[in-house]
């Protein structure tokens, strides 16, 4: 058997598996968008925010708030993924000693509203100060 052909075939099946996963996720997302929109419309009617024939700006405002809420949720989850992939130590920017990092929560004002983001913070016992590891230094 030709080794090159085997490698090519494995690469192809890996790619098609990834494409399948990507397609599955896109379809799931589309389905969830439709469901969220349905629930939002039903909720707006149930809680009385939107009745009869409302001014269009009311519909738009509520839809926009939902979008912003989704944006904040995605941003928080993305930052959680970033945090999970980082090392739990970093060099102190002042003395260079490697320090343990701990997870802390910070309020961040983003374009789509206030977020509570998880970040890693270090404390150097030599310098007796806290620090946020600079991007790229973590885990070196
Ligand atoms: Zn230090």
Write the layout of secondary structure elements.
Blueprint: H1 3-46, H2 56-85, E1 89-91, E2 98-110, E3 113-124, E4 129-131
The structure holds zinc ion.
What would your notes on this structure say?
The protein is α+β, with helices and mostly antiparallel strands and 140 residues long. It is built from two helices and four strands, in the order H-H-E-E-E-E. The chain has a four-stranded antiparallel β-sheet. The model has no long low-confidence stretch (mean pLDDT 89). Bound molecules: zinc ion (ZN).
In short:
By secondary structure, this protein is of the alpha+beta class. Helices cover 53% and strands 22% of the residues.
Name the poorly predicted regions. none
Supply Rg: 24 Å
Cα distance, first to last residue? 43 Å
H/E element order: HHEEEE
Taken from the alpha-carbon principal axes, the silhouette is flat
What is the structural class?
A: alpha+beta
Q: Determine the mean pLDDT.
A: 89
> In DSSP terms, counting alpha (H) and pi (I) runs of 4 or more, how many helices?
2
Strand content: 15-25%
Small molecules bound in the structure, each named once: zinc ion
How many strands?
4
The largest sheet, given as strand count, sense and whether it forms a barrel, is: 4 strands, antiparallel
Percent range of helical residues: 40-55%
Strand order of the largest sheet: 1-2-3-4
Assembly state: single chain
């Amino acid at each position: 058997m030709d080794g090159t052909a085997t490698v090519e075939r494995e690469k192809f099946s890996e790619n098609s598996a990834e494409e399948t996963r990507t397609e599955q996720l896109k379809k799931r997302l589309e389905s969830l968008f439709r469901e969220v929109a349905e629930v939002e419309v039903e909720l707006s009617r149930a809680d009385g925010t939107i009745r009869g024939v409302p001014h269009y700006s009311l519909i738009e405002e509520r839809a926009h708030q939902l979008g912003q809420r989704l944006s904040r949720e995605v941003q928080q989850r993305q930052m959680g993924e970033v945090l999970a992939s980082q090392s739990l130590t970093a060099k102190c920017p002042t003395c260079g000693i490697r320090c343990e990092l701990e997870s802390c929560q910070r309020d961040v004002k983003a374009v789509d509203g206030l977020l509570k983001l998880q970040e890693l913070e270090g404390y150097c016992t030599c310098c007796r100060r806290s620090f946020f590891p600079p991007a790229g230094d973590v885990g070196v």
